[in-house]
């Protein structure tokens, strides 16, 4: 299957920007089942690409400086990715980041009373660690139904779990936190998902991966209740959202920003 992505991130400022720098992670990662990336381009209006490099997670990173005095920045990402049938198994660990590093707690994934209680409620009656992980995924969605507008990019796993709902980012953070409590390296994944019921979307997607002995990394999309399949494009990974965010940046000056995202993923 070949998927086409058209993704526009549009920042509008209410006054001239003195200085701003955006860190962009929007180039898909090659992996088993995801290959032959066709004509993937990132076009910029209102800014200049300063540098492209690969970070310690193997993510392709573009640094974009906003033009001095600009009132808007547009980042357009387009391309096609060839995908084959797969069951969510990424396989053996690769890359410069050591496997034990994915056991490290971060501010967004640090476990507290809520995550520890979640892990304890799972019990031990499972045929395998993978079966336990799927049960954990289902339990998280039961405890925290998908609901937009009640969390944000800085909401921690503990805070989300104590709330009334959350989105894919929150589900991924809770799953990662709990899997690390169980002794499994775990990481955050940002990317694209082709929806079955619509082409236009207003945000990218996120899920988690956990590592199991003798198998390697396996993906878990808590929000949708299954492992990623060939509708998923894997773009960036990291210890949490901050490592894998599609666009993050810094800005100097009093100008306030408005962000609009337009996204199409289709076969």
TrEMBL record:
Pfam families, per the entry: Bact_transglu_N, Transglut_core
Domain of life: Bacteria
All copies of domain Transglutaminase-like, residue ranges: 160-224
Classification via InterPro entries: Bac_transglu_N, Papain-like_cys_pep_sf, Transglutaminase-like
Name the record gives this protein: Transglutaminase family protein
Lineage: Bacteria, Pseudomonadati, Pseudomonadota, Alphaproteobacteria, Sphingomonadales
């Amino acid at each position: 299957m070949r998927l086409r992505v058209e993704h526009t991130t549009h920042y509008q400022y209410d006054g001239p920007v003195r200085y701003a720098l955006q860190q962009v992670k929007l180039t898909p990662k090659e992996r088993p089942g995801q290959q032959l990336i066709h004509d993937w381009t990132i076009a910029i209006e209102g800014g200049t690409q300063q540098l492209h490099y690969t970070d310690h997670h193997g993510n392709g990173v573009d640094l974009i400086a906003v033009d001095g005095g600009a009132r808007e920045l547009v980042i357009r990402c387009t391309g096609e990715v060839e995908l084959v049938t797969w069951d969510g198994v990424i396989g053996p660990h690769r890359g410069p980041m050591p496997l034990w590093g994915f056991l490290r707690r971060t501010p967004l994934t640090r476990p507290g009373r809520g995550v520890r209680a979640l892990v304890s409620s799972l019990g031990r009656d499972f045929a395998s660690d993978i079966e336990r992980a799927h049960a954990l995924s289902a339990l998280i969605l039961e405890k925290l139904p998908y609901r937009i507008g009640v969390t944000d990019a800085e909401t921690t796993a503990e805070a989300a779990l104590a709330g009334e709902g959350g989105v894919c980012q929150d589900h991924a953070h809770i799953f990662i936190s709990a899997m690390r409590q169980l002794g499994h390296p775990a990481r955050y994944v940002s990317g694209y998902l082709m929806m079955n019921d619509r082409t236009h979307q207003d945000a990218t997607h996120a899920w988690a991966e956990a590592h199991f002995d003798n198998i390697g990394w396996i993906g878990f999309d808590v929000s949708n209740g299954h492992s990623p399949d060939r509708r998923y494009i894997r773009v960036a990974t990291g210890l949490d959202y901050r490592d894998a965010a599609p666009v993050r940046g810094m800005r100097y000056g009093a100008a306030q920003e408005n962000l609009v995202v337009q996204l199409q993923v289709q076969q």
